[in-house]
Amino acid sequence: MGMPIIVEIDDREASSELFNEVFSYFVSVDEKFSTYKETSEISAINRGELKEEMWSNDMKEIFALSEETKRLTGGYFDIVTRNGTYDPSGLVKGWAILKAANILRSHGVKNFYIEAGGDIETSGKNTEGNSWYIGIQNPFNKKREVVKTVYLRNKGIATSGTYLRGQHIYNPNDKNKPLKDVLSLTVIGPNVYEADRFATAAFAMENAGIEFIERLEGFEGYQINHDGNAIMTSGFANYISNSYV
């Protein structure tokens, strides 16, 4: 789906076979859900070539989770695009990273880091025996300047924004209105899937997004507005200190 993927394993269980298994899984996800590939399952669905009873179990799961997320966010998460086709990428990425993490866990791996397109699942410790540290990019500077560093262990983190890919996120309640008030919204959650889906929905809420994350139990957020001001949830600062976990 046009994104870099990084897998780091800091356990004795690490092997080329294990890395191959994880990356092969990501390839299989791409083959099903990439809206850029004419041969993908989601592309066939959008062309009307596959009836629902013919969908794969993964596809059925994603559609069910998308409906659940739409309900939990008051309609701010919707995989139906402006032109009426389906694009589940706002949820699939985090879902796939979490599934890949579970592959590692099934092999007994405890210390690892998986990143796909900036969304990350962490587990255990890094090579230095510390929490994994992750930089939040300055949306005004595309040279990867870091404005905040957070320290995570057994957590997921995801960022939604328009500063890299343009207006690819929209408010389902007003599909033609560009989202300009917020440039990026980073969400820390119990895992990357949860962080990813709620980051997407909260970004579509614009200024109300950070308040939505504040109300979610077990989640924290960091929002950067178009005027350069940043707003964080009440517990976000806990992750800025390496002594937190």
Describe the structure.
The protein is an alpha+beta fold and 245 residues long. It has one domain (5-239): ApbE-like domains (T-fold, Roll), CATH 3.10.520. The chain is built from 6 helices and 9 strands. Strands 1-2-3-6-7-8-9 form a 7-stranded antiparallel β-sheet, with helices on one face. The protein has a two-stranded antiparallel ribbon with strand order 4-5. A hairpin with an 8-residue loop joins β4 and β5 (146-152). α4 runs antiparallel to α5 (192-204) and α5 (192-204) packs antiparallel against α6 (209-215). The radius of gyration is 18 Å and the shape is globular. The two termini are 33 Å apart. The mean pLDDT is 91.
- Note the main sheet: 7 strands, antiparallel
Number of domains: 1
Helix share bin: 25-40%
Strand pairing plus helix content: what structural class?
Answer: alpha+beta
**What is the strand tally?**
9
Query: What's the number of helices?
Result: 6
Distance between the termini: 33 Å
Overall pLDDT score: 91
Radius of gyration: 18 Å
Shape: globular
Strand content: 15-25%
CATH architecture assignment: Roll
Short description:
The chain has one domain (5-239): T-fold (Roll). Helices cover 32% and strands 21% of the residues. The chain has helices spanning 16-33, 41-46, 57-72, 89-106, 192-204, 209-215, and strands spanning 5-9, 112-116, 119-123, 132-137, 146-152, 156-161, 182-189, 220-225, 230-232.
Topology:
Blueprint lengths: L4 E5 L6 H18 L7 H6 L10 H16 L16 H18 L5 E5 L2 E5 L8 E6 L8 E7 L3 E6 L20 E8 L2 H13 L4 H7 L4 E6 L4 E3 L13
Antiparallel strand pairs: 1-2, 2-3, 3-6, 4-5, 6-7, 7-8, 8-9
Helix pairs in contact: 1-4, 4-5, 5-6
